[in-house]
Amino acid sequence: MDYDLGLYQWLGWTVQFALAATAIFFLLRALSARSPRFRISRRLMRNRQPPRWWLRSMGADRDSPALRERASLLAGCGIRLAPEVYLAARRSLQLLLPAIAVAAYGLERAGALASLDFGYTAAVMAAGLLLLFWERMFLEAYRRFRADRIRKELVIVSSQLLYYSGSRLHLHGKLTRCLPFTKLMRSDLQLLLNEWYHRPDSALARFRERLGTTDAYGFVETIRTLRLGESEEVYDMMREMAKEYKAKIELAKAGRKETVSYVLFVLAGIPILYTFQIFLYPWVQQSQRLFDLLNS
């Protein structure tokens, strides 16, 4: 009964922590920008700056290596959030979570909070701090995963464009034919096609920024060259680019296989250690006792 009650309390604290984090996120979002009245005013909302006092208090109002690193990570992960807001929110949580833990400890010492509840609160706060401590590692891992997925889709799109190289279709029509073959970058490619006839160069630049990978830069420059004039030299350059992307895909696949092989090698050694501990170690102990008796 006590175990079930403790489990329910732990789940309750976890849900409350998730709801509190969500509420803090939307509160910071509401403070940084107003809700647009019309759909067309979303760009103005994204350009609206967060409160300067908050950024200044968190040290995110000026250029720094941490800010540049977060900007690169957010762009590579496809997260359309201002790096200043992200860095300030991260540092705010680093200050808020220990403060909540200290407040819970004070309530527990005063008798207003049960010891079990304080333990759950401290565990949730510690888990939140660990997530904040490892968030850069998680972002880097997701950026590598997203870059690999985008690279594969760029190879597919490049192959389709090479297939339509002899067609009289407009470049917009060729890219439209490539849309069903994409998955991760489908929304970004669809937005590029929607903005194509307004300002193609600006649309390509925004498409490159939304993807946020180094491979997307070369692809966008090739598309820009094709828009100015299609020629066999440009398609040859696209073939070379597709071959380079395929080589990177194979290299990344080989690296993942090597990592998995190392992990499997370590896991295979665990049963061997248990075998030694269960079957061989008692015989070693008996032999040691026998030698001790003979020496005595």
From TrEMBL:
Key word Transmembrane present: yes
Alphabetized UniProt keyword annotations: Membrane, Transmembrane, Transmembrane helix
Spans traversing the lipid bilayer: 12-32, 95-112, 118-139, 262-284
UniProt protein name: Type II secretion system protein GspF domain-containing protein
Organism: Cohnella zeiphila
Organism placement in taxonomy: Bacteria, Bacillati, Bacillota, Bacilli, Bacillales
